[in-house]
Amino acid sequence: MIKRTQRIPMRDLATLAAEDRETVEKNAMNGQVFNIFKVLAHHPKLVKRWTPFAGHILSKQSLPFRDREMLILRIGWLNQAEYEFAQHELIAKRGGVSDADIEWIKTGPAAGWNEKEAALLQAADDLFENSVVSDATWATLSKSYSTEQMMDIVFTIGQYNLVSWALNSFGVPLDDFLPGAKKS
């Protein structure tokens, strides 16, 4: 992974207006506000409007957990988004994705996956490289996924491509609990 320089500092949430602080803190997990939200706190209106969509992609969409995490990890890897990959590697492993799977995700669709999983990873590669899922990849995925799921595949890749760009550009540092984080 490429190490990024932090360009936007983490916001002291105590300096926010109460409504804006609540908007940011709604995204806390187990009482912890992740670094991404401490940086995004510089733009509370964006957080308020973006998080419903991000929440849909993360937890309310039609794809199985494993498929969603494979897509997120692949696009994070392609973007060399250290923060995104580290966060979702942890999430994926908690959900049963193996260390071997994680290594294969880094390698890509040719790593020995079954046809469906190779096509999932290929969809991320197609969108990353050409901004469109190829006809061959679409045809393979269409054998296993509904129209709604096909849409969720594209929106999942797109959402996490966007997030990877933001994380990389803003230089969001790893949260303390992530492997590789600088301990404060």
Core attributes:
single chain, 184 residues, mainly alpha, 62% helix, 0% strand
> From the structure provided, what is the oligomeric state, counting identical versus distinct chains?
single chain
Note the total helix count: 9
Q: Find the structural class using helix and strand composition.
A: mainly alpha
Largest sheet: none
Rg (CA only): 17 Å
Shape: globular
**Which range best describes the helical content: under 10%, 10-25%, 25-40%, 40-55%, 55-70% or over 70%?**
55-70%
Tell me the series of helices and strands, N- to C-terminal.
Answer: HHHHHHHHH
Contiguous runs where pLDDT drops below 50 for at least 5 residues: none
Measure the end-to-end span. Answer: 21 Å
Strand content: under 5%
Q: Compute the average pLDDT.
A: 95
The beta-strand count equals 0
What do you see in this structure?
- This protein has helices spanning about 20-25, 35-40, 45-60, 65-80, 80-95, 100-105, 115-130, 135-140, 145-170.
- The protein is mainly α and about 180 residues long.
- The two termini are about 20 Å apart.
